[in-house]
């Protein structure tokens, strides 16, 4: 009996995770370099923390989540310690600062870019692995540090090509929201507090009428024929009217009129007034940084000012509806996080950009440059026994065409089966190669080499009447001395717009 063939493993991608193309990665690198440059001009320096942290160091909650101890990928180490993949970049920073507290300058200004992981149900636009780019100031209790975060985010949006009027950095204060909840009699009632905050967070989606329902008896969502009912906070009508004052055209005045005199609300409004004054004095007007008492972030996370970077242009969602793009990042003051590890209070404020979402926004705006790069210069193989010669030719081109601080010009030797030369040209075309190098035995003996401009060859070939004429015209191809190989390739790169080391003719 013949042995049973082993079953093939099915190639399948884990749910909530994605493969990314070269074009996407090149575009992301360019975007990250722009963000990094802005952060560094504001005095921030990089730090990197590991993907895994001890589970107890990550804390008992996720930002923007009310499911304690859930949402993380965890495993038990061989010493029976539990480890978890980081769910954000802030909790690992808090651990890093606490562990190195005596050696770090304070305030400590740092930035980090990296992947984070959420063990949540994936859906459209919702992934289990995604990248964030954070900046934080640890050890600065002053509200001026929060103002800096908002101003730097505005600079970042514009550096990426998002024009004024297409974005706004919205700023609120958790002291204001917490004070309002206390003032309407929900002190200590965590369930209804969360219900109210979630209702306020739906203003952009449902408007004032929808929020009024969610603050009252509840709201029936009949979109898509589902008829889902969301239970409300069951506030009295007069209380709902007071709470909705935060959506007045001048939110600060509305909150002050409805809730002024409450110590928490007044303290939060004073900090917002200071942030507004710092921003306006520095030249950041309301079209860039807007004080907005309706912003809700981090139901369990933040302790003071909170920020949200919102994009204001319209896109079409998965249902074909035209909607505003919305948030691409946010943050705020989290004075309690580092202090979990230390007896000393350690104030901190920070901001996190959702890299994938921001990249999608830039693609919508046509601002995502750097996604396409020139393909390689391909040295073809006419004789397998002369592979060393072809490698030497590629090495010479690689050294001549590339230099420090210049866009890379890739050069490669064809490593497939060289028997069918047409397949080599097909490969070069598929790779987007601007030029191929050809040297058979006769050319080698004569000290010559062929260089072929693929784009020009394609253009000229369109005029050929038959294969015989096409072969005769050797479209886009020229024979040059070996000593002139670099100059010939550079001339083609300049003609096609691919990067070349020298600009002279």
Written description of the protein model:
By secondary structure, this protein is of the alpha+beta class. It folds into two domains: 22-176 and 247-365, BirA Bifunctional Protein, domain 2 (2-Layer Sandwich); 377-496, Anticodon-binding domain (Rossmann fold, 3-Layer(aba) Sandwich). Helices cover 38% and strands 20% of the residues. The chain is built from 17 helices and 18 strands. The strands form four sheets. Strands 1-5-6-13-12-11-7-10 form an eight-stranded mixed β-sheet. Mean pLDDT is 86; it is low at 61-69, 460-473 and 501-505.
Task: State the main characteristics.
disordered C terminus; BirA Bifunctional Protein, domain 2; five-stranded mixed β-sheet; 2 domains; alpha+beta; 505 residues; eight-stranded mixed β-sheet; Rossmann fold
Please describe the topology of this protein.
Elements: H1 22-41, E1 45-46, E2 52-54, H2 55-58, E3 74-76, E4 82-85, H3 90-99, E5 108-117, E6 129-138, H4 143-159, E7 167-173, H5 174-183, H6 190-201, H7 203-215, E8 218-221, E9 228-231, H8 237-243, H9 251-259, H10 263-281, E10 289-291, E11 305-316, E12 322-333, E13 348-354, H11 355-365, E14 377-379, H12 387-401, E15 411-413, H13 421-430, E16 435-438, H14 441-446, E17 448-453, H15 454-461, H16 467-473, E18 477-481, H17 485-496
Parallel strand pairs: 1-5, 7-10, 14-15, 14-16
Antiparallel strand pairs: 2-4, 3-4, 5-6, 6-13, 7-11, 8-9, 11-12, 12-13, 16-17, 17-18
Helix pairs in contact: 1-4, 4-10, 5-10, 6-7, 9-10
InterPro entries: aa-tRNA-synth_II, aa-tRNA-synth_II/BPL/LPL, Anticodon-bd, Anticodon-bd_dom_sf, His-tRNA-ligase, HisRS-like_core, HisRS/HisZ
Binding site for L-histidine: 88-90, 118, 132, 136, 297, 301-302
GO molecular function: ATP binding; histidine-tRNA ligase activity
